[in-house]
Q: What sequence folds into this?
C-alpha cells in the first residue's frame, strides 16, 4: 500500500514538472518601434525582436499597425500568433 501511494505521489510530481517545462503562452503590450515594409519579417515591439510569419494574425481594429502604435502581442510555443492594435492607454507606463 505504501509503495502504491508513493508511486502515485511521484507520478503527480513528475507530471507537474513536465508541464512546467513546456513553453508558456505569453501576451504583452508594447509600442511598435520598427517593422518591415511587408508584414513578414522582424518586428521590434516594446524593445523585443519578434519574427512575424505569414501565419501571424494581424489585426488593426484600433488603428493601423505602424511605428508608434500600441499593440498586444500573443506568443504561443515561441511563435508570434497575433499582433493587434490597442488603445494607447494600454501601453502607458
A:
Amino acid at each position: 500500500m505504501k509503495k502504491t501511494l508513493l508511486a502515485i505521489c511521484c507520478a503527480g510530481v513528475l507530471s507537474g514538472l513536465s508541464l512546467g517545462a513546456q513553453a508558456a503562452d505569453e501576451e504583452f503590450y508594447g509600442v511598435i518601434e520598427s517593422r518591415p515594409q511587408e508584414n513578414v519579417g522582424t518586428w521590434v515591439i516594446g524593445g523585443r525582436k519578434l519574427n512575424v510569419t505569414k501565419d501571424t494574425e494581424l489585426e488593426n481594429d484600433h488603428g493601423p499597425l505602424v511605428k508608434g502604435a500600441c499593440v498586444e502581442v500573443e506568443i504561443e510555443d515561441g511563435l508570434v500568433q497575433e499582433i493587434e492594435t490597442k488603445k494607447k492607454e494600454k501601453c502607458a507606463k
Remarks:
- The first helix runs from residue 2 to 21.
- The beta strands are 26-34, 41-45, 48-52, 57-59, 70-76, 79-85.
